[in-house]
């Protein structure tokens, strides 16, 4: 009998993609009475519990007879690093005060920029670490974190250094993205765009991706084109906030660039779904933001499906959409966007991994990272069906069972 570090089983229901990316209608693997053998940080075998349980002895075992087991959740779009909050602006929105007026009064994103710039490095490290532990409680095992609340170049570099700070002992993997968020109010926007393009070498090594907020009131298509061109030349992966507030041609940029993910897409023309598919991009949808904006707009899910675009889901955690819970994004994807429960699960695991350029996670198969969630639900449909409860029983990250508090240990040997 082989000895491994972790056994999970017997499992009531195991659900995983068979390959990546996953497109609507693709097959999935659904197994009952399953088992998973993990050694170190990798999955080494998946099969029936009769086979796995008789073949391996584990240093610890997680029984899951009445549970669902899936790959760990992956959140590919967050604004996790900022200081302050804007809860009072919710009441203004309910009163019908337009966002432009909120900005004029000193609120909105520039208010968050001011609070973030005014925070110390230690304060920002503490904020980031606490949020990383919080998202892990809800089953997130890999997360993208954008800069964007510094705007001025030195502040953006400061935020990216904090995201990369080795002293932040995060329980999960973090993917840093340089977000070119909004133009500064006290600088010519043309000069600012030129400065961003000329400064990308200073960001190299601090960010895996460059993301641009291309939209009405943010950056124009032409400005975005220049930034993406320079980022691509320097080897950054490309991401894009596109067609959220209005369609001004941002999603058309997939004709010109290899863009890993186009995000938001509330105003995406249906015919552009074909362009996204042809470009090999992922569409990352953000239903929590739709709710927080109180928007009647919806991304064209049926058109994206029909074109064969892989769909991912993100939380879009920010001062405007305050939810660290990827399960909530999954629930809303069904109830707001009409996405099927299996589609939601694939969007939050394998397709989210694919959008971030990972090919080693998001799937429960031999050779993949042992990023796994054991759920307090009998089957995958409950992930969309039941609202508002944290349905996690256990989170395994790289083969280690996570504790839920920053002060606790990461690995628990008492996993059986």
Automatic annotation (TrEMBL):
GO terms for biological process: L-histidine catabolic process to glutamate and formamide; L-histidine catabolic process to glutamate and formate. Catalyzes the hydrolytic cleavage of the carbon-nitrogen bond in imidazolone-5-propanoate to yield N-formimidoyl-L-glutamate. It is the third step in the universal histidine degradation pathway. GO terms for cellular component: cytoplasm. NCBIfam families: hutI. It catalyses: 4-imidazolone-5-propanoate + H2O = N-formimidoyl-L-glutamate. The keyword Cytoplasm applies. It is found in: Cytoplasm. Residues 68-400 form the Amidohydrolase-related domain. This is Imidazolonepropionase. GO terms for molecular function: imidazolonepropionase activity; iron ion binding; zinc ion binding. 4-imidazolone-5-propanoate binds at residues 86, 149, 181, 244. Binds 1 zinc or iron ion per subunit. The keyword Cytoplasm applies. Fe(3+) binds at residues 77, 79, 241, 316. Pfam families: Amidohydro_1. Zn(2+) binds at residues 77, 79, 241, 316. It comes from Vulcanisaeta souniana JCM 11219. N-formimidoyl-L-glutamate binds at residue 149. Keywords: Cytoplasm, Histidine metabolism, Hydrolase, Iron, Metal-binding, Zinc. Its main location: cytoplasm. Transmembrane segments: none annotated. Its EC number is 3.5.2.7. Its cofactor is Zn(2+); Fe(3+). Pathway: Amino-acid degradation; L-histidine degradation into L-glutamate; N-formimidoyl-L-glutamate from L-histidine: step 3/3. HAMAP family: HutI. Belongs to the metallo-dependent hydrolases superfamily. HutI family.
